[in-house]
Give the backbone structure.
Amino acid sequence: MVGGEKRLLRHAMMPHMLCPGCGHGIVLDAMLAVLSARYDNLDNVAFVGGIGCSSRIVGYIDACTLHTTHGRPLSFATGLKLARPDLNVIVVTGDGDGVSIGGNHLIHAARRNIDITCVLLNNEIYGMTGGQAAPTTVPGAYTSTTPQGNTQHPFDVSELVKAAGATFVARASSYRPQVVGDIFGQALDHVGFSFVEVMTDCTEYFGRTNRFGDGADMLMSQSRYDPAIDADLASRATVEELTNPQPVRPVLPKGILHRSSRLTLEETLSVSGGRSSNANEMEALERDPRRGN
Amino acid sequence: MKLMQGNEACAAGAIAAGCRFFGGYPISPSSEVAEEMARLLPKNGGVFLQAEDEMASLGAVIGAALGGSKAMTATSGPGFSLMQEHIGYGYLAEIPCVIVDVMRGGPSTGLPTAPSQGDVMQAQWGTHGDRASIALAPSSVQEVYDLMIQAFSLSESLRTPVIVLVDEVVAHMREGVDLTSSDSASIKMRPLPTQPPGVSFEPYRSGEDLVPHVPDFGVGYRFHVTGLMHDERGFPTSNTDIAAALLERLEKKVHLATDLVAPESYLMDDADIAIVAYGITGRTAKAAVDVLRSKGTKAGLLRPRLLWPVQDEMLKAALANVEIVVVAEMNRGQWVREVERIVAGDAWVYPLLKAGGSMVTTEEVVSHALSASDRLSTTDGGRSSRQDLRIG
């Protein structure tokens, strides 16, 4: 952590509760670096989290922070954004929180195209409750609720959100924090529902149970599955997997996966709700240069 | 005067109280509240959100309330069950919001369009953990309108969720409503923060009024709101002393509502028999009091408008001189337990309980009161021969 972003941390909440080697702190750092370059203070930025390790990081940010119930941060954020469209509302959720118990809210937020940013930290497991399988856990993975290895098929979360109508969908990994920051910045700039899935590592549960090693080993393993980083490493990893009893984490595409443009929920409500008497407002909104894509 | 349905009056009262956000999900028999809010809110600069389910409805309401809006939802039985977690959240995080539950027959899908008063205990005990509830019970369309305004005043001034328990009869009945009945100057607002922003700001510190002056989001304060036990800074804590003190303050705060909602008392001064009933059953009971009086029986009506917290002192005083208390309700016996607790053997409590989807009738109240009176005069005070009347 360097200079600027440190002032955006809520020091009174320290020490934090993340485990050594956990990828969530890397994502927090990357997000704060982006915000630090944009804001003197976060008076008008609201971070909303659900329940889980990932959601807890909102409390470490010196902003308006809302730690909600399990799976529901997007619903709280929706009400907040509609009441205060001027606030920059950012949801931080996890794979259990966002795709399992909160999956319905995720697809509806995407469908409505509400102008908030949702960062989903996908560590493929329930960390806070002790390493149970998630709907993102890869087949074969050992967890406390899949002692014989996971047999269920996982969600491709980004594809799910894209199909639900999100106008900005991207995936990054904690192995490349600069990319996380770059994508997070673009998500903030996007008008409409912007979704960023960040692959992170749970060293204590996913890593230990599946013999992926410590935090550094897991980061390296992420790099092996990221063909954009090192094609040679990626190919070697594939060879290893053939003889390795470890579960296979698939090579997931990274980067901006989808970008499109349509009116946001706030804009459609503003027009249909009679807040404006300008009959051409809908058209004017669609021409808004901020859309640009 | 305007002819309105109870559910319409619910929406009209909310708008008059300053409600500017509604998040809800369709469910009988409450749907007209949402439909009316969808029509009224945009005209009044507010926002209507049809949410994807009831958890999202109340989540969005809480988010909007933190953004500074007066906010509400309306639902019925199954939806009320789904909202319980967020009612607990609103209580612990001290977020003002109003939840209307138009009670229908349950449990489960039950009787979706039939009347019931079966959610009375759920309004108090539905969420996990210790929570003191505020629940209002209107008995007429006019009272729906008036109590909605009062619900927002209580919710905002005490920073706590307020539940309005409407039964299906009142919700769908049409009556004349005086829309000028409530003085807008009497509407109470949420308290504004008195401390300036800064590192020493403590959003959850409260004074003698027991209500923390939590600011809205986005007005220059940066702070944390959580459903975890928290200290006065709003930060999570597992300190058991702090948690116990917080639970105690929250309960005391909610009990401030006890003196703020007067019951209806009718011919109670010289009554030997008190009929205790609420909601639509209170009106049936009032008619029964007139019939009983015409037969020479000194009956009176006590109709609480506030079911939670229970007004122990008021009830104890009002029932001090009666021999018989008939408690009539459209369920298998819920609020009668509170009356029995308060009367504590000083009078004979005779429940008149009717579940299954139809109203308690005037005739049933009259005959139950008379048979209770007969038993009292002919036996050992009725205790050995006491019988509850359960219908349906």
In short: Chain A has a mean pLDDT of 87. The beta strands of chain A are 42-49, 63-67, 88-94, 117-122, 168-173, 194-199, 255-259.
